[in-house]
Design brief:
- It contains 19 helices and 36 strands.
- With 906 residues, the protein is α+β, with helices and mostly antiparallel strands.
- The chain folds into three domains: 118 residues, no CATH class; 139 residues, no CATH class; 391 residues, Glycosyltransferase.
- The strands form seven sheets. It has a 20-stranded antiparallel sheet that branches. A five-stranded antiparallel sheet has the order 4-3-7-1-28. It has a three-stranded antiparallel sheet with strand order 2-6-5.
- Strand 5 and strand 6 form a beta hairpin.
- Helix 17 runs parallel beside helix 19.
- The protein is globular.
- It starts with 43 loop residues before the first strand and ends with a helix.
- The relative contact order is 0.10.
- InterPro entries: PcRGLX/YetA-like, PcRGLX/YetA_2nd, PcRGLX/YetA_3rd, PcRGLX_1st, TAT_signal.
- Pfam families: PcRGLX_1st, PcRGLX_2nd, PcRGLX_3rd.
- Keywords: Signal.
- This is Tat pathway signal sequence domain protein.
Length: 906
C-alpha cells in the first residue's frame, strides 16, 4: 500500500473552509442576477417517460428540466397544469445556473394526488396549492413528516431508523431498521463450520434535506453495529410526497470489511407491522413481474372440505373483512381452530431466472413450497382490511440474490424484510479470483498484462470502499389491496414513473454540448441513425441474453467478445467487465437525449447506478478513484479518475435531481488530491519504494486525468457550490493552453495548491490515443460554451484539428509528428468540432471521411447486423455481432457529434 509522507501538508483543495455544499435543495446561493434582459420562456410540455399516464406512482415523481441561458432568473418559480388546464401542485428548486446567474437546470416534484394525464405543461409562474401539503417537524432526537395521508417519525439515534408509520390514529408499521449478518468462512470451500454474527443499523445523524410543500427528503447516516464492531456505513434517503401513502427509500451502503474473513449472509430493511383482527382477515400479497399476484390469507377458508359460503370466500379473496362467522356454514365456523395458520412467507429470487415462494406455520416447522416462477415483481404485502404495509425493491430480480420475507403474521406483530442479499443465498464472497500466479514484481505484472490484459498487483484488487445503491418502496395502505391494485403498485416499484421534457426542448436549452435529436431527413442521415440504433439495441439486448445481472454486476456491460467461444470474455483479465472504459456511460446518455426513449433511459440509469458505486471507491485510501476494467469490478490495479469520472454521472443528476448522485459528484471535487496517494505511472517508471510526491509537481495527465477532474469542477460550479471550483477549472485550463503545445505537450507536472500545470518553454509532444476518449472532448465543449477564453479555445481547437491531420501539418505547427495515432474514427468528432469552430468546409468533409473510414472502429462496410447462433454451438440461442463496447461507445459519440456539428457535410 502507498506510504504518503507529504500529503498532510495540504488541506483539501476545495473542501477546507468551504461552506456546506451538498444536495441541490441546500446548495449555496445562486450566482448574482443576470446583467442582461431576460428573454423569458414559453410553457413546455413534459410527458411520462413511458408515454402514457401510470396507474400508480412510486409515492411521487421528481424530474429535471433544462432552460436556455438568459431566459429565466435564477430563482424562477414554476406552475404545472394538465393539457386540459387543471392546475397541479408542483415543487421546484434550481440545480444549476448559467454563468450569468440565470437558471440552467431545475428539479420538480409532484405528489401522490397528481391527476391522470399523459402530458403536462410547465411554465414560469406561481405553483398551485394542493389539498395536501408536506409538513416537517423537528424535535431533539426525532423528525416527523406528515404527507397529509401518513405520518412518519424518524429517530435521531439508536437502531430504529423509522420509529413509526401512522395513518391517522393507526400505526401501520413501526421499528423500521437495517439488518445484516456475516460469517467468518465462505460456504463454498468445505471448511469447518462458520461463526455467525448479526448486526443492526445504528443511526448517527438525521438531516432534513428538503421540507416541502410537495416533497420532503430525510437523510439518515450511520453504521451497522454488534458488540464492539461497527462496519458497513450507510446513507439512507427517504422521500415522502404530499397526498401520498408511499415512502421511497434510496439505500446506499459501503463495503469496509475484510474480504478474507467477512462473508455477508444477509443485508436488509425490516419493519414491524401490528396484526389486528382474526387470522382469516390477515392477508398476504406477492407479485410476479408479469403482473400476476399471489393472494393468500394467514388462515384460509377456501378449498376446505366444508364450504363457508360464496360471499365469505369471495370476501377473503378480495381482501375484505369477512362477514360475522355466525352467518357462515357452521360446519366451518365450529372448526376454524383446526385450520393451520400460515404466519411466515418467503419469496426468494436467488438467480435472475427463478424465484420460489414458500410458507410455514411458524419457526420450528418445515417450509412448504407455495409457488414459483421466473422473475418476481419485487413487492409484498401483509395486513388486514383495516390497513397494512406493502414493501418492495426496484430491480428485484436484476439485483439477485434477493428476498421478500414475512414472519409472525399469525401473532400480534408481523415482521417484513426486504432482503437486498438473501440469507438463503450463498454468503457473499468478495475474495480475489486468483492467487497472483507469481506476479510479484512489476516486470512480471507487465508481462502478464501482455497476455490477459489484466494489470494485477498484490493488495490492489480489494473491494474495500466500493458501494451499492438500491431503491426500495413502502406503502402504508388503508386496506388490503385487491389483486389489480397490488399489481399497479408492483409495476410502480419495478419501473418508477418519470416525467421528462422532450429531446427538442433539451437540445434548444443548449445543455450537454454537441448533440441533436434524431434526424432522418436524408438517406445518409437515416443510415447513420439506423446504425446508432442497431449498436444500442445489440448491447441492450446482450444484457438479457448473457444474463448480466446480479448484486454487484447489474448495470455494467462486457468489454470484448471471443468469437471462438461465442462468448464475451468474462474470464479474460481486462477484457471482462467494462467499468466505463472508453465512455459507454456518455454514449448511452446521449442516445437517450436524442431519442427520449424509456428503454434507453433505464439502460443508462442502471449503468450510472452501477459505475458510480461499484466501480468507484468511496472510503479508504483510494477514495475518489475508480478501477480499470476486469474480471471483478475492483480487480485491476489501475485506480483512476477516468473511471470515477464526474462527466459520466452528471446526466442522471440533472435529469432526475437524484440526491445520491449529487453526493457522488460532490465527492469528486477534490479528486486531484488522489495524485498524492497513488503513482499511476509506477510500473512504467519502475518506482518500487515509498511514494513521496511533491504537491507542487504531481504527475497528472492534461487529458485523460484532467478531463475527469475538470468535469467535477464544472459540475460543482454549475450547481452553485464552492466558487473555487470555477477558479480551479479556469486556472488549470489556462495553464494547459499556455504550454507551447497545449494539450499535446509532453510530460509536465501539476501544482495541487494552485490547480495549474507548471509552465514549460520548450515545445514537446506526447499524444496518446486514449487522451480524449474519457470525456475530454465533451467537457471541453461544454466548458468553452460557458466562458470567454479565446486563448484556451484556440489551443483546444488546434488540438482537435491536428489529431487526425497529416503529420506534415503537425510538424509545421508543433515541431513534431504526433505518431501513428489509433482510434481515428473516435477523433472524427474532434475534427468536426474544429470544423464547426473554424467554419471550415474541408475539415467538415474530412470529419465524415474519418468516421466512414472507421479506423479502430466501424468502417462503412462493417457488418451492422447480428447473427443468430443456436445450440448445440452455444448454451442457448444468442445474437452475435462484430461489436465491442469500446468501438460502439466511441462510434456512437463520434456519429452523434458529427451529425450535430457538421451534419450539412454528410
Amino acid at each position: 500500500m502507498a506510504n504518503v509522507s507529504r500529503r498532510t501538508v495540504l488541506g483539501s483543495a476545495l473542501a477546507a473552509g468551504a461552506a456546506a455544499v451538498v444536495g441541490p435543495e441546500i446548495a449555496t446561493a445562486a450566482p448574482a442576477g443576470p446583467s442582461v434582459p431576460l428573454t423569458g420562456h414559453d410553457p413546455i410540455e413534459v410527458r411520462w417517460l413511458d408515454r402514457a399516464a401510470p396507474a400508480a406512482l412510486a409515492a411521487g415523481v421528481t424530474w429535471g428540466v433544462p432552460w436556455p441561458r438568459g431566459a429565466l432568473p435564477g430563482d424562477q418559480r414554476f406552475a404545472l397544469t394538465t393539457d386540459s388546464g387543471t392546475a397541479v401542485p408542483v415543487q421546484t428548486w434550481p440545480t444549476a445556473w448559467w454563468p450569468d446567474g440565470t437558471v440552467k437546470w431545475t428539479a420538480h416534484a409532484v405528489g401522490g394526488d397528481v391527476p391522470q394525464a399523459d402530458a403536462f405543461r410547465l411554465a414560469p409562474g406561481s405553483p398551485a396549492t394542493g389539498t395536501h401539503r408536506i409538513t416537517v417537524r423537528e424535535r431533539p432526537g426525532l423528525v416527523t413528516v406528515d404527507t397529509g395521508v401518513i405520518q412518519v417519525a424518524f429517530g435521531g439515534h439508536g437502531n430504529k431508523v423509522v420509529r413509526s408509520v401512522r395513518r391517522g390514529h393507526q400505526i401501520i408499521a413501526h421499528s423500521g431498521r437495517l439488518v445484516a449478518s456475516r460469517q467468518d468462512r465462505p460456504d463454498t470451500d468445505g471448511t469447518s463450520p462458520a461463526r455467525h454474527e448479526s448486526f443492526t443499523g445504528s443511526v448517527d445523524r438525521v438531516e432534513v434535506e428538503q421540507d416541502g410543500p410537495v416533497r420532503a427528503v430525510i437523510k439518515v447516516t450511520g453504521k451497522h453495529r454488534h458488540g464492539n464492531r461497527e462496519w458497513l456505513p450507510f446513507v439512507l434517503r427517504f422521500s415522502l410526497f404530499a397526498g401520498s401513502d408511499g415512502i421511497r427509500l434510496v439505500h446506499t451502503f459501503f463495503w469496509d470489511g475484510d474480504e478474507d474473513r467477512d462473508f455477508l449472509t444477509g443485508l436488509g430493511v425490516r419493519f414491524t407491522v401490528p396484526m389486528r383482527g382474526e387470522l382469516y382477515d390477515r392477508h398476504i400479497r406477492l407479485g410476479d413481474s408479469g403482473g400476476g399476484v399471489l393472494s393468500e390469507a394467514v388462515r384460509g377458508i377456501t378449498g376446505l372440505r366444508r364450504d363457508p359460503g360464496h360471499a365469505v370466500r369471495q370476501a377473503q379473496i378480495a381482501g375484505r373483512a369477512l362477514p360475522d362467522p355466525s352467518t357462515w356454514d357452521q360446519r366451518v365456523t365450529s372448526r376454524l381452530h383446526w385450520i393451520p395458520a400460515w404466519g411466515d412467507y418467503s419469496l426468494s429470487q436467488l438467480t435472475a431466472n427463478g424465484y420460489e415462494i414458500r410458507k410455514r406455520t411458524g419457526q420450528g416447522h418445515t417450509w412448504i413450497r407455495s409457488d414459483g416462477g421466473q422473475r418476481a415483481a419485487g413487492l409484498g404485502y401483509v395486513g388486514t382490511p383495516s390497513g397494512g404495509l406493502a414493501f418492495g425493491m426496484r430491480n428485484f430480480w436484476q439485483l439477485h440474490p434477493t428476498e421478500l420475507e414475512i414472519t409472525g403474521a399469525a401473532g400480534d406483530d408481523a415482521e417484513t424484510t426486504v432482503w437486498m442479499w438473501s440469507p438463503r443465498a450463498e454468503a457473499m464472497d468478495l475474495r480475489f479470483y486468483h492467487d497472483g500466479m507469481g506476479q510479484d514484481t512489476y516486470p512480471e505484472q507487465l508481462d502478464a498484462l501482455e497476455i490477459t490484459y489484466e494489470d494485477y498487483e498484490p493488495g490492489f484488487g480489494t473491494p474495500y470502499g466500493v458501494g451499492r445503491t438500491t431503491e426500495l418502496m413502502f406503502w402504508a395502505l388503508a386496506a388490503t389491496p385487491d389483486a389489480a391494485r397490488f399489481a399497479e403498485l408492483a409495476a410502480a416499484t419495478a419501473a418508477p414513473p418519470l416525467l421528462a421534457s422532450s429531446p427538442e426542448h433539451n437540445h434548444e436549452a443548449g445543455v450537454f454540448g454537441s448533440w441533436a435529436p434524431v434526424d432522418r431527413s436524408t438517406p445518409a442521415k437515416a443510415q447513420i441513425e439506423d446504425r446508432l440504433e442497431a449498436i444500442h439495441r445489440y448491447h441492450r439486448e446482450q444484457v438479457e441474453q448473457r444474463s448480466w445481472y446480479g448484486f454487484w454486476d447489474y448495470g455494467d456491460v462486457m468489454h470484448s467478445y471471443d468469437r471462438d467461444r461465442h462468448q464475451w470474455r468474462y474470464d479474460v483479465g481486462g477484457y471482462a467487465w467494462d467499468n466505463s472504459e472508453l465512455s459507454p456511460d456518455l454514449w448511452l446518455w446521449y442516445h437517450y437525449l436524442r431519442t427520449g426513449d424509456a428503454t434507453a433511459f433505464r439502460f443508462a440509469e442502471a449503468m450510472t447506478r452501477h459505475t458510480s458505486e461499484v466501480d468507484q471507491y468511496h472510503l479508504g485510501q483510494w477514495k475518489g478513484l475508480g478501477t480499470r476494467h476486469g474480471v471483478l469490478h475492483w480487480a485491476d490495479s489501475a485506480k483512476q479518475v477516468r473511471i470515477s469520472n464526474a462527466n459520466y454521472r452528471r446526466f442522471y443528476y440533472f435529469l432526475t435531481g437524484d440526491e445520491r448522485t449529487g453526493d457522488i459528484l460532490h465527492e469528486l471535487i477534490d479528486s486531484d488530491r488522489t495524485y498524492l496517494v497513488l503513482n499511476a505511472t509506477r510500473k512504467i517508471d519502475g518506482s518500487t519504494g515509498p511514494y513521496d510526491p511533491d504537491p507542487a509537481a504531481l504527475p497528472m495527465s492534461k487529458t485523460t486525468d484532467w478531463s475527469a477532474v475538470a468535469g467535477a469542477w464544472l459540475t460543482e460550479w454549475e450547481r452553485g457550490g464552492d466558487p473555487r471550483a470555477r477558479e480551479r477549472l479556469l486556472a488549470s485550463a489556462r495553464s494547459i493552453a499556455a504550454l507551447p503545445n497545449g494539450w499535446a505537450q509532453a510530460g509536465g507536472t501539476y501544482n495541487l495548491r494552485t490547480a495549474r500545470f507548471n509552465p514549460e518553454t520548450e515545445p514537446t509532444v506526447s499524444v496518446g490515443s486514449l487522451s480524449s476518449v474519457f470525456g475530454l472532448i465533451e467537457v471541453m465543449t461544454e466548458f468553452l460554451e460557458l466562458v470567454d477564453e479565446p486563448e484556451v479555445e484556440a489551443k483546444w481547437v488546434q488540438f482537435c484539428r491536428l489529431y487526425n491531420s497529416p503529420r506534415e501539418d503537425q510538424i509545421a505547427e508543433t515541431g513534431f509528428s504526433w505518431g501513428n495515432q489509433n482510434l481515428r474514427q473516435a477523433y472524427s468528432r474532434a475534427t468536426a468540432y474544429a470544423a464547426h469552430k473554424l467554419d471550415d468546409d474541408a475539415l467538415g468533409a474530412r470529419a465524415w471521411q474519418e468516421l466512414r473510414t472507421g479506423h479502430a472502429g466501424y468502417p462503412d462496410d462493417h457488418e451492422w447486423a447480428s447473427r443468430r447462433v443456436e445450440p448445440p454451438f452455444v448454451l442457448r440461442a444468442i445474437d452475435e455481432a462484430d461489436f465491442s463496447s469500446n468501438a460502439s461507445s466511441q462510434y456512437g459519440l463520434a456519429a452523434v457529434q458529427c451529425l450535430a456539428l457538421v451534419g450539412e457535410h454528410l
